[in-house]
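Q: I'm teaching a short session on how sequence maps to structure, and I want students to see two examples side by side rather than one. Could you give me a first protein with its sequence written out and its structure tokens following it? Keep the formatting plain so it prints cleanly on a handout.
A: Of course. Example one:
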Amino acid sequence: MSNSGNLNQNMFSMTSAKLHILAMGLMLCDHMWATLLPAQEWMNCVGRIAFPIFAFMAVEGYFHTHDLRRYILRLLICAVVSEIPFNMMTGENLLYPYHQNILWTLLLGLLLIAAAEKARTRGRIAWLAVSGAAVLLGYVIGYLTMVDYYGEGILTILVFYFFRERNWQCLLWQILCLYILHVELLGGYCYEFVLFGHEFTLVQQGLALLALIPIWLYRGEQGYHNKGFQLFCYAFYPLHITILVILRGILLA
């Protein structure tokens, strides 16, 4: 392959680092809309793309981590640290039990994947039984605990676990499952528009399906990585929410 061919391939391929940066940027847009720029609705729209990327990367992290317990412990610590800033952003109160931050969603999804993978060692029947239970349990727990994206969020993580292979069948299942979860079940705000004389409805949460584009440009490569970058990725969530909450308080004072 020529050098220009390699360059084009590198331009359009995604590494783990690129996916993390993209998801963090999209999430930042969404949270800026929620705190500082409520009139900029486009920021909320592009923010819909962030969560499926985080869900996909959580599954990839599960299969690539050298120490699953440390991986889960880091998520747990970060979820606890993030809860007060998240409460301040969503409920403007230190305690807000009606909505938990996204890291709890990721954590619960990973625990269900761990249970399914443990059952896999006992055979396919055991794996299927535990996987089915994980789907049901994940959906119910998501609503009982009121984590971000609720049960649909946990099931989004499981979708990327069940259909992790790089083939057209898994791509089609990802599209179908994400459509059911984010359009039919989560739903939400809709946009009405006319195209070529026909009326169409666009469900805002359906924009989450656009996350499949960068996800399928991922080739399993880690990309840029060191301890500092890893720490930044974990710290970004509570840190940027804290900064936005402080800025909102200053502007509203």
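Q: Perfect. Now a second example for contrast.
A: Example two:
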Amino acid sequence: MKNSEKTIYNFLLKLTDVFVESKTASELSDNLKNAFAAFIDVKEFKIFLFDEILNSLKDFTKPWEVLKKNYQANILNSYFCSFKYNTTDYIKEKDVLVFPVYEASKLKGIVYINGEIKNRAVLETTPLISKQLSFAMGNLKNSEEMMLQSKFHKTMRNIAKIIETQYELNYIMPVLGEMIDGFISEHLIYVFLKTAKKKSYKLVWPNKCSDDRIFDFLSVINPKSTAILEDEGRIGIFPLFCGGKIFGAIAAKSQSEKLSDKDTDYLIEIAKQASTTVERASSYMKILEHATIDALTGLNNRHQFHTRLYSEIANAKRQKTSLCCIMTDIDFFKSVNDTYGHAVGDCVLKTVAKTIKKELREYDIPSRYGGEEFTILLPNTSIEEATLVAERLRTQIEKKKINIEDYRIDNVSSISVTISIGVSQFNNKMKEPEELYRSADSALYQAKESGRNRVIVAEA
């Protein structure tokens, strides 16, 4: 076998591995580029696919991006159209090599390579590569569709599980936003709640909406709506219902083209699941109105915390004893949910709650205030003693290895978290009981701002 034939043979073998091993569009493009480096001093390597709806080319690895007009026109008119009207195997001019990609004998796109060709034998391989690439892209598309379906069902399950940890809309809605945004990452996602007057909407996730028109579009939805598409299909509004009435909405905005039919269908189903979840949470809230225990952690709930707060402050005043409050939350808890899922997040909450309870006296009063935030009332405790308790809690949580083997997360058997803590003491300057925990909350904020995993004592 001649050297040139052996080189081509090895090149084709390498391409076979590329097509088999590449699991994403980016991997396929990068691996092809590296393979071609044996023949071409590659400066630019792109796979472009033609979008018939938009009548334009799109980068195979970044289909949501719009190509610059001049660049688009040059590639489209100079190369793609040439293959559309001719049957040539490739176009070679100066330092540019372009060959077509077909799907069922229909021109689908092109491979564009800019770079000096070191061995012209590569030109003979383009017809074979074109066919193999078409087949590989088809397999990749099917694989991505299966992954998307799996991700969709996982998102639906996670939404349904939200009420296991919280029942308040102000907590539920941002979590919904994060879940939906994680599923449909190529579009901007917004979550809105109707205001108390029920005539307008407020944004609850994320912190800012970059398109004021969305607020106008929200006014169009009604109880019969399933989805409303605006701005030529680039913006979708998906209402949320509870008890047959609209209580909020999910908005999706495409950053380039219109929302696909599949995206719209997914969002309609997600909105339905979110509505069902909120309706169930609302029912649980009515049942739990007189409950005192948080279902997940076994600590007092927020309602009971406020009841005990008033009681303990009255006792402290009457008996002239010291009362302290600790407020703490888990550092970077959102990243735990994002990385390992909400089931692991629940495990972390339970473990932290159990550790808190273990480190306290029988008459101390620990509560889950909401989300990942906990409060502790310490009767008959000086600020110095409360600070020691807080530091002991912080140390114990930091040392704790939380076992997550049962969740089968990529061979991760345990994780660790830290907490930030604010401590305050009741004094005669405080006119309202709420000032005690607000003072601790302010100190907690300082602890988080100054680096987390630390204790800050509020100024007297």
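Q: What should students look for in example two?
A: Point them to this: The radius of gyration is 30 Å. Also worth mentioning: The chain has twelve helices and 17 strands.
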